[in-house]
Amino acid sequence: MQDRISAAEYQRMTVKPSKMRNVKTVVDGRMFDSKKEADYYYLLKAQKQQGEIIDFFCQVPFLVHDGYYKDGRWIKPIYYYADFLVIKPGDFWLEEYIAEIHETKGRWTRLALDKRKMFEKRYPEYKFIVI
Q1: Which among 111, 127, 107 is positioned nearest to 65, based on CA atoms?
Q2: Does some domain include residue 74?
Q3: How many domains does the chain divide into?
């Protein structure tokens, strides 16, 4: 007689690890792409409670290249999704607040680097910080 395993057990045994070896993590009902990103969320949450930052937002989309028509076909726009948009208090005399983009990356892919370049060209007012 042969031992049998359930479909769920087989699926667990054959799950291929992610390309970047990141582990999806859920915090406060929100899914993060990596443990590093989830840990940084905790840090920002603590900083907001202590008053060090005004607020922060997760997975904020920024248009980096407009969509257009070519040969009668619609070419979709390209968006960069910032891990975190952090709003900090600014210098009292110069600016009310400072907006920063915080990116939690373990390894940069060619696509991520290209989107970052397009973002920095289109939105020079944001300070870009890699965690």
Answers
A1: 111
A2: yes
A3: 1
Nearest to 63 by CA among 82, 79, 83, 84: 79
Query: pLDDT tens for residues 90-131?
Result: 877 777 899 999 999 888 899 999 999 999 999 999 999 999
Length of the chain: 131
Give the β-pairing of 78-89 and 68-70: unpaired
30: three-class secondary structure by DSSP: strand
Residue 6 placed within a domain: no
Specify the pTM. 0.81
Q: Are 102 and 41 in contact (CB under 8 A)?
A: no
Q: Does residue 9 form part of some domain?
A: no
In a domain, 64, yes or no: yes
